[in-house]
Amino acid sequence: MSSDIYAEPDLSKKVRYSRKEDGAEWEQREVDIYESADAAGGPQTLNPPSVLKGSFRCATLGLRVLCLLMLAGIIILSICYALNKSENNKLHFKHNKLNHSYNELQTEHQETKRLNSQLQEEVKKLKEKIEEKCPDRWMRFGSSCYFKSTEKKTWSESQNHCKTKGADLVMINSKEEQEFVSNFRGYSWIGLRSNQTSGGSKWEWVDGSALTETFWAEGWSDPYSGYYGVCCDNNRKWTGSYDHESKTFICEK
After folding, report:
1. Contacts for 100-103 with beta carbons within 8 Å, 24 or more apart?
2. Residues 146, 181: contact at Cβ < 8 Å?
3. What are phi and psi of 133, to 5 degrees?
4. C-type lectin domain location, by residue (predicted)?
5. pLDDT averaged over the chain?
6. 20 phi/psi in degrees, rounded to 5
């Protein structure tokens, strides 16, 4: 009996068994016992349900979309960073330019203040000079005092005499001054002389400055060598004469 228990089962035979359903009669059935699983058609491959396949595909698609969105976000952030950096460089350049302009304006402002102070000082001196009383026998016109001599001297002697008074022979620089000087009447030396240069002779004032306005009589505008200015003829115009001639003179200071 014990040997039958451990004996190799015979799978090539049929087996009869009985079963009873609930409330039914006993039923006997006979089934074949296969020698191996291969005889029964081999192992059965279970295909995954279609629902699981669809879920997997949706998850894969979702991950791909998420990756694309992340990549697009990175690209957009990179572009924004580059644009922001470029804009920052432009602002930095403008800031430096504005600083440079500000420094230039500060320098110009300081220079303007200096010139304004200098101008105020000159105006003050000019005002004091205008308000200053001219010496006896001198006449005021504008900011200058004028003296007309009664004695006659050469041009050089006349200039030296004016120097002793702290003045020079008169230098006429405007129509108004010309009208004032011509009121003295007579032919008098003025501070005009013909100076010889490498380019020829030219008229200039006694201090070396150029003429700004001229009031020559007809035929007297050419700077003849050795000639000196005289004012004024009967038409209140300038003429000329040699230095050795003696004439009255007009000083200005």
Report:
1. none
2. yes
3. -80, 135
4. 141-252
5. 82
6. -130, 125
Q: Extract the tokens encoding 232.
A: 């004024």
Neighbours of 236 (CB within 10 A): 15
Rounded mean pLDDT, 56-77: 88
| Structural tokens at position 161 | 């005499």
Tokens found for residue 226: 């050795």
Which residue ranges form the domains of the chain, and what is each CATH number? Answer: 2-32 (no CATH), 139-252 (3.10.100.10)
User: In this structure, are strands 200-205 and 144-148 parallel, antiparallel, or unpaired?
Assistant: unpaired
Residue 14 CB contacts under 8 Å (≥ 6 apart), including other chains: 30, 31, 32, 33
pLDDT at 247 > cutoff 50: yes
Upper half-sphere CA count for residue 49 (Cβ side, 13 Å): 3
**Would you say 178 and 229 are in contact if contact means Cβ atoms under 8 Å apart?**
no
Q: How far apart are CA 87 and CA 75, in angstroms?
A: 18
The pLDDT tens digits for 11-35 are 555 556 556 555 555 555 555 554 4
Task: State mean pLDDT over 214-221.
Answer: 91
144 closest CA partner among 130, 165, 163, 127: 130
Q: 160-210 pLDDT, tens per residue? A: 999 999 999 999 999 999 999 999 988 999 999 998 877 778 899 999 998
Average pLDDT over residues 121-148: 84
Q: How far apart are CA 83 and CA 105, in angstroms?
A: 33
pLDDT grade for 36, boundaries at 50, 70 and 90? very low
To which residue do tokens 């039914």 refer?
24
Residue 186 backbone class (left: φ over 0; alpha: ψ -120 to 50; beta: rest): left
Number of residues assigned to the chain: 253
